[in-house]
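OP here, attaching both records as promised.
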Amino acid sequence: MKHYRITPSYKKSTIEYNIWEKRLEDGTLIRGTLEIGWRSGTFVIHVPETNEEIDEWLTARGMSIADYDDDYDLVKPQLCPTTEDDIIEFDDYDTDMLDMWDGNWEDWSVAIFGENKDEYDSEEIQEEIEEAYSEDWSEGLENLGFSEEDCYYEMHCNPIIVECDEDGSVHEEETKAEA
């Protein structure tokens, strides 16, 4: 297995999304999404090399090596982003987030799903969510009946990609070669 440290080439281009949901008695689903923009972040992507490692990677995504090798209408999955990619969705890879620092913004959005969705005011719900979060963070949302359902990360710029060890440490000779 190879490992690559991924960092942004531009500031304020690493984004964290936290999804909070609440199901109401009438079946309506309220989804609040907190978008946090960070000045920077560091990720490690683990890239399989052998057929066995690739098979494990594909199996985790509901595919097989036969699907991966098939030249028909299937798009082969990328195992690692390239420096040409301008948006990276880290859920597409075997990734560990190492750090995020210097938060620059927090924005909430609310979506309402279900037959009765028109009976609810999304702006009013968003205000309630924002107030609860600003006062008591996650606990405030939990007190409103929300539970955190997902958290994912994206990078909205070309990445800097450097080979590293499993923990994200770059070997000294590789760092000197970049300088």
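Record two, same layout:
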Amino acid sequence: MPPAQAIRDALTAGVPAERMTLSTDSGAAYPLYDAAGRTSRSYMAGPDSILQTIRELVKSGLGWGRAAMCATQNPADLLGLERKGRLEPGRDADVLVLSPDERVERVFCRGRLLVENGTPVVYGAFGGHRSE
């Protein structure tokens, strides 16, 4: 089942929205589905897979804020990551800026610009940032 469908189904079943999370280790094999919902082949998930799921949630009627919380605030809260998940003073300021047509315009990590006009400006594992 595609992730967006699983989230929609869980919300319909009454699972609290704050318990919904999206994450990926990028590089994992995931199924692709045909129009009938059958697995047609697999693909290697990249960092764009979460954004694609959020887009699908929005197209199905979930607002951008609520859909984005599945990949930001909710996982941070559930994992106890106090500096992640929200745009507030004292947080790490990880931000994805989309164009009006939903293309990636800019990406900031801990306030540092990593992508400008859709093009990476920092290369390498984690852009030289150390993980917490």
